[in-house]
Amino acid sequence: xxxRTSFLLSIEDLTVSFDGFKAVDALNLYxxxxxxxxxxxxxxxxxxxxxxxxxxxTRPTGGSxxxxxxxxxxMAEHEIVRVGVGRKFQTPSIYENLTxxxxxxxSYPQGRSVLGCIAFKRxxxxxxxxxxxxxxxxxxxxxxxxxxxxxxGQKQWLEIGMLLMQEPELVxxxxxxxxxxxxxxxxxxxxxxxxxxxxxxxxxxxxxEFVSRxxxxxxxxxxxxxxxxxxxxxxxxxxRVVEVYLGH
Amino acid sequence: MKNIYTRIFxxxxxxxxxxxxxxxxxxxxxxxxxIFRLNLVGxxxxxxxxxxxxxxxxGKAGVLSLGQGVFFGLGGYCMAxxxxxxxxxxxxxxxxxxxxxxDFMDWNQLTHLPAFWMPFKSLPFSLFxxxxxxxxxxxxxxxxxxxxxxxxxxxxxxxxALALILSLGIDSRQGYTGGRNGITDLRTLWGWDxxxxxxxxILYFVTCFLLLLCILVxxxxxxxxxxxxxxxxxxxxxxxxxxxxxxSMFKVAAFCFAAGLSGLGxxxxxxxxxxxxxxxxxIVPSIEMVIFAAVGGRASLYGAVYGTLLVNAGKxxxxxxxxxxxxxxxxxxxxxxxxxxxxxxxxxxxxxxxKIGPGLEKLRAGRSVTIVESLAKGEKP
Lengths: 248, 381
Known about the structure:
The complex is a heterodimer.
Chain A: E1 7-18, E2 21-32, E3 36-40, H1 47-54, E4 62-67, E5 70-71, H2 77-82, E6 85-88, H3 100-107, H4 114-118, H5 124-136, H6 152-165, E7 170-174, H7 182-195, E8 200-204, H8 208-214, E9 217-222, E10 225-230, H9 232-237, H10 239-246
Parallel strand pairs in A: 3-8, 3-9, 6-7, 7-8
Antiparallel strand pairs in A: 1-2, 1-4, 4-5, 9-10
Helix pairs in contact in A: 3-5, 3-6, 5-6
Chain B: H1 2-9, H2 11-32, H3 35-60, H4 68-87, H5 103-107, H6 123-146, H7 152-172, H8 174-177, E1 188-189, E2 192-193, H9 197-223, H10 225-235, H11 237-241, H12 247-273, H13 283-296, H14 301-321, H15 326-340, H16 344-376
Helix pairs in contact in B: 1-2, 1-9, 3-9, 3-12, 3-13, 3-14, 4-6, 4-12, 6-12, 9-12, 13-14
């Protein structure tokens, strides 16, 4: 089972402890291509820590993370990005002093070494790609606006757009609709559903209405372990899940 | 081609800035100042290479180094070693017990030239070393620090320690380095007397041209993707890392670039002033360089030059009249700049431009309207 090749991401026995406290405890998680998985769970369940370990920000104490049959544990963050993993942070992290256009341009996967960066040239191919991604995230009219002047929701979209520039196969989104208006949430749900094709996406989210709109499959984390996994309907009927999370 | 041109000169406002600085350095100051004062300006300009490096490293990439004097000193020592060897030919040193070696080695009972001095008999090697030695040290320190994610205050403290180590090291190995006195009594560069008044003027202009060249190279770098990367690095280091960049290598590169510029400044200092000593390498000059950049505006290339000139001019004038008060004035200036004008002179200029600019724009527009009107009436403007 563990070596089934159809999984794009297989996490096995993943454990991390901070000073003896096991934030994530022997976690197993398998995600297929084209899948949109949502991870939910109460605060401190270890959701963000799982994403941190996938993208290399936190080093696991044990276990393995295989992406496309490739072990990610032990790789440097930028190498993990280069094999096709994109990460969006909880608070929008964009470059406030650069324009939307420049934000997207800097995220284009070319000229990533120092010398490559010095020799970097804007080609028509890059311009087209920036235009296309800007349309995807509804910021095509804001290309010349500096990041600092965008609304909160637009910043969130821009960061998703910056990930799309890299054409990652695996996208990790940490609370993408936090602080968004209902209308923005709707647009974001559409956006996430659109970009899911041809890649897989892991979303951490608290807003259950939003989760039910996008999720293919939901994983509930509690105290660093998987409490339940299945479709949204299954999860909502699971008495343990209702008790530790949904009941609140 | 046009693209490269705009990238180097940055359009009309860039050309204006360049023109103003060139006018000041190449015409106004040489005409207005006596040779003694002009030499002082030349000396200050060599510091502005360091300030320029700090703009790239600190202002743009957000990495504060309090040890740039190290690289200034290394560049200076590389140049001074060549000049000293040329000045120590067997004939002019025939009264020594070992003729043909620098005088301070003879005083310290050395009987032959240490091996690391040998390559500095060659001018091309020495000129190469002026850049290469500071950059190599920056590369090693940079890799050791940035690969381990040492940054911010810790990096500043470590570079400061480096400045202390180097100045103490030079100080304590008198036979090899000239010790506290430094390397003095430098005379000729390939037979050309660097102390003659006309050579001093030539060296002043060489310094100016190299400085303008370094500004243009920096502008070219900043106008492309590199400039955006440095800003991105300063604002959101994590985002850059998770966009697939090896952040540490960009910091190392910025540190090396700043070190190379400082080394060039140090070499030009030695050529103009005729000596180098550990007091120019240590902590105090390293911090002064940061003040120059801060006063000028830490993110402005031109600001770095004006800041250096202004602070040093102030230092000269002030310390001639009130020698005891200068250090307090310098400290006060630094605090005032940080508290009141965090963007330094460049920030003040920008503020003025925004206040006065629209008015000027209106004037200009108004004039062209009247010209158009008078043309419409068939009059000559």
